[in-house]
Amino acid sequence: MAPLIKRLQQETWAECRVLATAQHRGMLDQVLRLFDIKADIDLDIMQPNQSLPTLTARLTTRLDEVLESEQPDVLLAQGDTTTVLTAALACFYRRIPFGHVEAGLRTGDLSNPFPEEMNRVVASRLARWHFAPTQGSKDNLMREGIEESAIHVTGNTVIDALLHVADRCDDASPYKGEQRLILVTSHRRENFGEAFQGILRAIKSVADKNLDVHILYPVHPNPNVRDAAYAQLSGHPRITLCEPLDYLPFVAAMKQAHLILTDSGGVQEEAPALAKPVLVMRRETERPEAVAHDVVKLVGTDYDEIVSSVQRLLDDPAEYKRMARGVSPYGDGFASGRIVDVLKNHFDV
After folding, report:
1. Residue 164 falls within a domain, yes or no?
2. Which of 80, 131, 152, 198 is deepest in the core (most CB within 10 A)?
3. Whole-angstrom Cα distance, residue 234 to residue 329?
4. Which domain holds residue 70?
5. Would you please indicate which residues are annotated as catalytic (active-site) residues?
6. What is the C-alpha separation between 133 and 102, in angstroms, rounded?
7. 59 exposed, middle or buried (CB, 10 Å; 0-12, 13-18, 19+)?
8. CB neighbours of 53 closer than 8 A, spacing ≥ 6?
């Protein structure tokens, strides 16, 4: 949302107020600093070991209090988090128009990703404006009965943010070595357990077999991820486990990487724009456009499929070149401006 916030703050017709739920406190604060944004309202919602039902209930109540106090003409939220779900619901109860940024992403399976797919579907039923990143996302919404007039293909503001920092982040990378770098992100709830153990075994196998490769894995703090990752991978000479990276060094690490192994969502959009091949450790993706362009490949959580796919990109220059083409189906860096134009037209300014 940062590029959209900055763009709205430049508009004389709008007063842009920033509400942070702090669902991801550490990630939030460093991005606000990077983009020089100050939250006007900070709910600081997270508590240790908080369940999804508890989080959902607390967010809905707190957001309703804010809406009663602020009385906004519009509320905008991005993505598929519980914050987005509850923001849409609170706006519905208050009859406040809700705009969903990054609308229309679907896997068609409510359990993958969990709970994000459900969050998206419910938010779409409640939104007044659907700011879809691609034509495919628009098609998903129309199949669900959303009126075409309410859908606007804008690109994704994620790409706006990426391009804003990509040219000034090189010195921020935490990896200073000379080996080919594989960047790993893996933390999906649906992969917890045996699937995640298979992922970790595959990562270790790649490091064992390739002396000219180094693996950088910023480990999510969830104990289901952290405990297993450190148990299997710590101490390996060609694997670096570290705390989650701030946005600037993470973009630098993506630029530096030879390839990226991930189960994350946004990385599937960002890395292709940086001409980096992406192997996605999931059975399904809500971002099929990059798969269709052959710059992202679904490898699931099967040990053999992960290892063989990584090895092919390491050993086969033609295959690597085919995937490392710099395709960006999710935006051109101007999504924020398009969203602002839609709102200006609504308010006739």
Report:
1. no
2. 131
3. 36
4. 2-156+331-347
5. 80, 102, 116, 187, 189, 220
6. 6
7. buried
8. none
